[in-house]
């Protein structure tokens, strides 16, 4: 996954996330929004086959990059748990 930082401030970030689509971006955005320090989290895909742009603002206590890292960690943990449960079901 290739990430390009378009804008980064103490409480705001815009990232271009190459090769991802609505499925991943929906999951990531929803998980970011579970953090109480997040003010806004959204993404947009300008054209049908363009890379999505993630926009996030925080309330200032936590950096947007830290929020994204934590959200990705939680998503990864959910996937690990699902894989574990599937292995146990076999």
Automatic annotation (TrEMBL):
Family matches, as InterPro entries: RBP11-like, RBP11-like_dimer, Rpo11-like
GO MF entries: DNA-directed RNA polymerase activity; protein dimerization activity
Gene Ontology CC: cytoplasm; DNA-directed RNA polymerase complex
Recorded catalytic activity of this chain's protein: RNA(n) + a ribonucleoside 5'-triphosphate = RNA(n+1) + diphosphate
Residue ranges of every copy of the DNA-directed RNA polymerase RBP11-like dimerisation domain listed in the record: 13-84
Keywords (A to Z) from UniProt: Cytoplasm, DNA-directed RNA polymerase, Nucleotidyltransferase, Transcription, Transferase
Biological processes, Gene Ontology terms: DNA-templated transcription
Main location: cytoplasm
Signal peptide from the UniProt entry: none
Keyword NAD: no
Enzyme Commission numbers on file: 2.7.7.6
Localization per record: Cytoplasm
UniProt keyword annotation of Transferase present: yes
Family that this chain belongs to: Belongs to the archaeal Rpo11/eukaryotic RPB11/RPC19 RNA polymerase subunit family.
Function statement: DNA-dependent RNA polymerase (RNAP) catalyzes the transcription of DNA into RNA using the four ribonucleoside triphosphates as substrates.
Subunit structure: Part of the RNA polymerase complex.
Protein name (database record): DNA-directed RNA polymerase subunit Rpo11
